[in-house]
Amino acid sequence: MRGLLLCCLVALANLSFNPKKTYEYRYEGMVNFGLGAPNLVESGLKMMCKIKINGVSPQTFVLQISDLNFEEFNGLPKNDTFNSSAKLTQRIAAQLMKPFLFDYIRGHVSDIRASGDVSDTIVNIVRGVLDFLHFTVKTTQRVYELEEVGIHGMCHSQYATEENVDTKELTITQVVDVDNCREKAAQFKGMATAVPDKFSRQRGASVISTLRYVYSVKPTAEGGLITKAQGLERQHFSPFNVKGGNFKMQAKKELVLLSVTDTSRAITYGPMESRGNIVYKFFNSEAHVPIMMQDLQEPIPKAIELIRRLAQVNSYQIDSTTTEETIKLYQLLRMIPYEGLQTMWVEFSGNNELRRWFLDMIVEINDARVLKFLEARFKARDLSTNEALQTLLLVFDHLQALPELVENAKAFLDMPFTRSNVLLRQTVVLSYGSLVYKYCANYTTCPVPAVQPLLDLATESLRQSNAPDMVLALKALGNAGHPASIKTIIRFLPGVSATPVDLPPRVLSAAVQSMRLIAARDPHSVQDITLNLFLQKELPTEIRMLAFMILFESNPSMALVSTVTAHLLQEHDLHVASFAYTYLENVAKSKTPENYQISTAGSLALKLLAPKFGRLSYSYSRAGRMDWFDDNYLIGTAVEVLMLKSATSFFPTEMMTKSKFYVIGRILQLMEFGIRADGLKELFGTTIPGFNGDYSFNDFLAIFKSLQNWEVMPNDRPVISAYTRTSGQEWFFADVNKDLIRNIIMVRDSKSPLWAAVEGLQKGFSWHWTKPFLIFEARYFQATTLGLPLEISKYYQTVNGITVNAKATINPPLNGKLTQLLHSDISVESDGFIGFTKDFWVFYGINTELFQCGSEFKSKMPLSIPYKVTAKLNMREKKFELDIPALKKEIEILSVSSNVYAVTRNIEELALARLTPMIPDSFFTNDEIVTGVPPNQYFMTSIKSPTVESNTYGVGVSIESELKRLYYHEEYPLYYFLGYTHMALKITPAQAGKSLDRIHFEINAGASKQPLSMHQMLATLKQMSQVCFWPSSLSFIAVAALLLLPLSVLSECCLQEAMKKLSSDPASAGLSSTPEPVVGVKVYAMSSTQKPEGYDASVYHTAEAGAISAQLIVSQVADETNWKMCVDTSVDRQAVAKAHIRWGSECQSYEMSIITAPAVLPSMRPALTTKVHWPKIPDSLVDIGRRFESYIPGMALFLGFSEQQEKNASQEVSASIGASAADSIDVMIKLPEYTIYRQAIPFPVQSIIYREQNIRNSTTEEIGRA
């Protein structure tokens, strides 16, 4: 008996078929997509068929499929059913019913073979069927784990077995961990520059998958025979954290044994090709765009016609209804062979508009065809430099990073046309570096030959001491981020290179920054080099600071941070110390996941460094950062500002700004700008004669006088250098040298570009520019148990357009000197259009060339600004006029619309494609449909805000919005974005029957009989800004904190210093009171049949001992009206700022006042208080205030404020803001009926109040004593 049992167990473990028998199964596979919520539309696919398996040899079998039926689903699960697609079934059956060979040994499928004319999609579907035969049985263990190959790749599986004692059948349950496969059948496209962030993924995931199989196996003489098998794969996806609501995919399949019979005759089949093993195979899917489907036969005439139509309908302004067709055009172009591109070029090259559209669109072909086409254009030189630059930049940026394409791209580096223009050559070299970076991102071992041309350029430029080429080569190596370039880079770095190095600071800067991307690929090498540079105190200050920055971008260990901290304690260069301290300060407070570990090390370092460097002033080099990250959304942002200075120059040596976006486990480096001022640094030196540091008019005059000596700057280095990076890749940099300045300043030369532009404007010109641009195409593919490709894609497309028609009249005519413009009347008439339309899609579903189904988010945002103006300018009289025609028809300036759809499409029935809103309109109108859903979980709003009209100017503004939403409280935050959304901002003609011709706008700065000088005017405006800033800044921050009044963190020190300068500034003291306005502004509605109506505003200035005041008077101009508004502002020597506002009849009807003053808290910390008092205001404002006040308690609770019921002054609101610590503030706001307060509110940057008080304690002496 035991021997029989053992034989049965051995047979079960040996899964196999008898090659002399025929096995017939019934197979059914189904997938559906939706939200898994009641009453919401879903989409799905179902395939049913019969399968026969016959033996060719003991290890080789034939699979045949018959009785195929393919069905689609798009609707409500409880109301609708699957619908059969006869045409699609017929097309799939034509390939699927052909025989397939496969090897089958001990339960494992290998070497699948098919006819050469069978598509990859069909072979993958067969893999989904054969996947049921592919598993491991161990009869000696009831529970076991294996890492084995399956349709999802090399993944970890857990097995559990259970034996039926009566039938001897074995039930086997297999669970596959498809989220953590060692070699996963998955693919990313378009995300090479989006850096993976493992720390973000530890906080949550955007995709979670589960997969389970259940098999029934019975023993036979040949081995274990599968009698029934079921598979269930579930996936949850969200653009945010899946814990906050998600889309759901469910794929089910079943295999049931129908019969086992003897094989009557051998199966015949034709030639077969090996198509690989059981693992899902990806193929080139560039043309299979998931967000649309079209017939791709005869693509050339279709693409030609579509380009012509898009160019025509967008010839003046952007037609937002056609912008989605650019995606169709991309898809068609990806199907066109190289010869077809040449044909289209011949068709379009003679028409500037069509030519531009064609060149802008072919960049998305992204394979060898577009490289070959662009190479032909470079050789023929039939592109302008601007066309070549733009096209090549985008071609290289969107090109697939394949080995053969990288090799082909090298040819552009040495082409004569490339070298014919400096900017074009820079673009080619930088773009090639970016291509190498993407190549290395896709291949674990990135071969050195890919980056060799850049290494050769760097080596040769160093040998020839060619500084511009050194900078170019190093910047390109920085883009490539290839670890093998380290050996070349260190040759440019003093103290690291094996030979002495004496290079300009801008070359050293480029060399240090070239390691920024290598820091992630070879952090230890970068850390060794940058630490070495940082410790060399004889190096230029800015180079040491850059080395420190790159060091910390390599995510150093706690021990390395401790080493740097120990050296900083001995640092005597205050610029290096200040930069390092503020950088560590930002890291310590950072909330983004990438800084999670290093922030702890930064906090410990700050505690050691704070006593010595915590009080350095803002005049030293600094690093600033603001960031946030939300775990519910898995989204965050960060902005950095870096200012590098040195003791040898007044002017900053280098300034940089960076921005990052964190989303679903990746870091997108958005934009980075940088500027170096080597020439200016030498021009200004350590001081500027006459510069006081308060940026008064005298300071600007001193700077201007120094700039007049620009001719003394050296010829061998640029005055200013600037660069910009996107997604971490530098794509543009430029040097402003003396020759360029000379060309700009020497405007007397009639051959100068500026003179030509003025002449062209006098003759009149028309200019139209349209730029379609696929901002990103990010795609993720993953196998499913059905053998169908699951795709998560994001497409962001924009079409930008500008049209300008203009003509100028200059009186008297120019006599050869452009300086005459300063004494001429200039009139310009212009009309045109500025706008764009941005389309955004997110697709989650199945996408093949035959069919699509899934969930699709779709949004559109058009901006449209048509204009027509007449402008007049007289510099001698300081007068500017602008006339705008009266509005005659409604204009939609901006709109945003979006919805989420259930999608089904198939290539055989394109006209029957279904794009159904996931939340159908009937949901909100049919009570039967919403049965079982609580009313508080869904709503529909349709709001058109009352049009705010100005009858005077004949124009109104309105905002329309319509929202349809369905909420489930446990599904936050995804459901905030689901449903129909439409919002629009419109400008409409006023309903009043007034007939207007135009709106006249006029600024007159020369109205006074005793006009102020430019010096006096700037000083007046400077002080009035200061006065108005306190209440406005107070309003801003408290609204952000409480939607009531803002917080202000400006210090008592700053205010007092400003008043000291005010009282001591001879320019301010020299200002005399004048009854004439300093500046006059008129805004009139003009009509040929009526008197002008509108408003007249005047600004007055008075100066008294110890204080300065400014007044603004606004008067309404119309018959039978005496409405005025009077605003009086002042700031005194004690830094008390006041504003008194009166309005109504002769400024007597209503009034309110605002006073802001410094204060001292009981803890001796400085603070700022603001009080708003309204003795009399209109009833309408009272009503608005009461409505607003009703929201305050709830908002206060939400923001963590406490509330105390108490009677305060009526008709008054006051607020006080004080610094409680270096990175927190206390806020108290008093309203008439209660007080709300909160202590120790975290502040994203160190409180200015806190820091400024510390500055007053004299930092330098303490550092010297240390």
TrEMBL record:
Residues 1-15 form the signal peptide. InterPro entries: Lipid_transp_b-sht_shell, Lipovitellin_superhlx_dom, Vitellinogen_b-sht_N, Vitellinogen_b-sht_shell, Vitellinogen_b-sht_shell_sf, Vitellinogen_open_b-sht, Vitellinogen_open_b-sht_sub1, Vitellogenin/Apolipophorin. One of its GO terms (biological process) is response to estradiol. The keyword Protease does not apply. Residues 17-655 form the Vitellogenin domain. The keyword Disulfide bond applies. GO terms for molecular function: lipid transporter activity; nutrient reservoir activity. Disulfide bonds join C155-C181. Keywords: Disulfide bond, Glycoprotein, Phosphoprotein, Signal, Storage protein. It comes from the Eukaryota. This is Vitellogenin-like. The gene is vtg3.
